[in-house]
Amino acid sequence: MQLQGIDLIIFGVYIVGVILFGIWIANREKAATASDYFLAGRSLPWWAVGGSLIASNISAEQIIGMNGSGFELGLAIATYELMAAITLIIVAKFLLPVFLKKEIYTMPQFLEERYDGTVRTIMSVMWIALFVFVNIATVIYLGALAIEQLLDVPLYMGIIGLVLYSACFSIFGGLKAVVWTDVVQVVVLLLGGTIAAWGILSFVGDGSVFAGISELYRALPGHFEMLFEPDDTFISKAATTELATGVDFAGNPTELVAGDEIQSSFNLLPGMALLLGGMWIVNTYYWGFNQYIIQRALAAKNLPEAQKGIAFAAFMKLFIPFFAVLPGIAAYYLLVEKGIDVDIDKADQAFPWVLGNYVGEGFRGLTFAALVAAIGSSVSSMVNSASTIFTIDIYNKFINPGASQKRQVTMGQIAAAASLIIGAIVAPQLAGAGQVFQIIQEYTGFLSPGVLVVFIFGMFYRRGTSKAALVVILLGVPLSLFFKFIMPDLAFLDRMALMFLISSALMIGLSAVTSKGGGVAKNTATAEGLVSDMKIRNGIALIVIVIGLCTAIRLFMQPVPGVPDWAVYLFGILSVAVLALIYTDKQEDDYKAIDLEPSLFRTRMGFNIAALAVILILALIYGFLA
């Protein structure tokens, strides 16, 4: 069902209104300096930080992609949102204070201050490639897919429209224009998403949303399972369509055979790994070290304001599964339980189908506007961050080190435009994908374990060296691909945990043989005013236990079909070896180690209460469903 009449008018008015607002912001407060353009002059209040975080995060891959995964897998996919809430609290308390202390613009800039310029440059290139070819391309594709269904226009027209829409306030206005349009769009996003979920859940529950949720829980208990077992499977809608038509989504003869539509739920969401294991790598990398997310916090007025904004975002994350997962489950219910023809070819079309059929006239246009708002916010944020990294970490460093402030802003605008264009060219190549949200997670997972180790050890492990960090980064992607090839049945979250253990062992071992020392005189374990060495060791050991050792124990107790026994033993041996290295390491501090004062990690009472509330809510959710 396509938008028409009043829905088209509401949608058009909203889109034009946001474009005009973004242009007005960009012209009212023109970016005169690099700080203005890339960090909004470090002037954002807490509510702008929190709202922009959510608007940048919640996009097509969540609203469309997670509803697609909800259609096939169920509520377990919501773990990405629920666990993100507690991850945000951890980032605000332990990671953000270090970044703000260093007064950095970009994540690669931090790597140079802690390690060296080579590490910074390599990570800059990797991040730009990830943003453009994976993040920007997938968000544009999913958004264009929804536009194709609801406006009945070709996919390429949707792509062009999204590029032009995002460009209006992401290229010329910089971060300030992006953030202030985010604040408007997050309100519309939450309202529109709620309307869509309310519409289909009310239909399922004969007029009652709560009755609708209760009916879904009764009829589809498997879709409310939060922790999968190794033998849990699902039916892939994309593979089913391909088998039925005999051609893939590119129009080529299918290579699938009967039975290929039955796929492993556990491989995508491997049980306890969602609570103790690889999920911590996904979330900590994304919320702590992802430029287009953390950039909002770096632009806050001060640390307390940034922490309040992140706590605000954490509470909003707890609500997002209501409209980012439940509509997809409801669509599956209508197909399986009610026999209604859910006219979709693949899972990622579930939310646009819900929007076209179960949202009332007028509200449909507003909800679709909310979806486009989410896409525009995320694309603009990614584009701004890609241009920030290119300008600060590559252009200023290698091409024009003496560039004026005005020239840096101009180069940032050119880089932003280039990122949008390249992402748009890549986007159509995703047309044959099934659950695009899962594709994003897996491809990001090739990079994230090594990045997490380099940052965590760079912040808290005083002995880490630049040569060790360089090796960890360079080996991360090839080793991940190697283990994917030799152990295809190992869940990608578990593979990330394995790479985390290998990267940690390399970081400590190589640091021991490449250490330059030089910091021991002023940074001994008992140095007055600094966090003690034993507390730091205990903290790193806790991370290794939560991610690595817990994965090893789970694999011992819950063998996964297709994963060889030697791989399980490898997890256990590596976990014990890394813990032993942490506590037996006697080398001197690296000369670029960061001094960490205990006062740096003290938080205000309001933040502490918010953190406790988030933990209690999560405990109740998992206590009831898991």
TrEMBL record:
Subcellular location: Membrane
Domain of life: Bacteria
Name this protein carries in UniProt: Solute:Na+ symporter, SSS family
Keyword field: Membrane, Transmembrane, Transmembrane helix
InterPro entries recorded: Na/Glc_symporter_sf (IPR038377), Na/solute_symporter (IPR001734)
GO CC annotation, single: plasma membrane
Family: Belongs to the sodium:solute symporter (SSF) (TC 2.A.21) family.
Record membrane topology: Multi-pass membrane protein
GO molecular function, one term: D-glucose:sodium symporter activity
Primary location class: membrane
Membrane spanning residue stretches: 6-26, 46-65, 77-100, 121-147, 153-172, 179-201, 268-289, 310-335, 368-392, 413-431, 443-461, 468-486, 492-513, 540-560, 566-584, 605-625
Keyword DNA repair: no
